[in-house]
Amino acid sequence: MLESLPAIVVRKHLVVDAPCARAFEVFTAEFDSWWPPSHHIGKADLLAAVIEPRVGGRWYEKGVDGSECEWGRVLAWEPPTRLVLSWQLNGQWELDADPSHASEIEVHFTPEGDTRTRIDFEHRHIERSVYAAQLRDGVDSPAGWTGLLARFAEKARG
């Protein structure tokens, strides 16, 4: 029998100076505009990072050599208020194709007036991942979601 691990969740909250629809658009359709080129798993340098705009869509990178490396799938697509993605990377930043090992990212976009949006970000089920502790430490670091979401907020502000 497998031992159940305690839940590992990384949560981030921020307010961006952009209307809700704009914040959702920047996070999804313009994902490549704020995702750093250094954050890729493929052998080739990163050409683009993509979130396909539909449930079942891929979340992946394109390399400068034409290669593609999947990171996960779109589990929920509810513009402009909610997005859920599976994260199929392990704690050594390698693709793990076993869906039972995938963690999830959920992002809620809540209007705060006409020009600001509260972002509630949760990376959950990290305990499912191979090398879960390393994954948690990586995503909950200044180079992880803290820094990435700061880049997103800057881009959303325009």
Describe this entry's structure for a reader:
With 158 residues, the chain is of the alpha+beta class. It has one domain: START domain (Alpha-D-Glucose-1,6-Bisphosphate, Chain A, domain 4), CATH 3.30.530.20. It has 4 helices and 7 strands, in the order E-H-H-E-E-E-E-E-E-H-H. The chain has helices at 20-27, 31-34, 132-139, 142-157, and strands spanning 10-16, 46-51, 58-63, 68-78, 82-87, 103-111, 117-124. Strands 1-7-6-5-4-3-2 form a 7-stranded antiparallel β-sheet. A hairpin with a 3-residue loop joins strand 4 and strand 5 (82-87). Helix 1 (20-27) crosses helix 4. The longest helix is centred in the last third of the chain and has 16 residues, at 142-157. The mean pLDDT is 95.
Q: Kindly, what is the distance between the CA atoms of the first and last residues, rounded to a whole number of angstroms? A: 52 Å
By CATH's scheme, which homologous superfamily applies? START domain
Largest beta sheet: strand ordering: 1-7-6-5-4-3-2
Order of helices and strands: EHHEEEEEEHH
Helical fraction: 10-25%
Assembly status: single chain
Radius of gyration, Cα only, in angstroms? 15 Å
CATH architecture: 2-Layer Sandwich
Query: What does the largest sheet look like?
Result: 7 strands, antiparallel
CATH fold-level label: Alpha-D-Glucose-1,6-Bisphosphate, Chain A, domain 4
The gist of it:
Helices cover 23% and strands 34% of the residues. It has helices at residues 20-27, 31-34, 132-139, 142-157, and strands at residues 10-16, 46-51, 58-63, 68-78, 82-87, 103-111, 117-124.
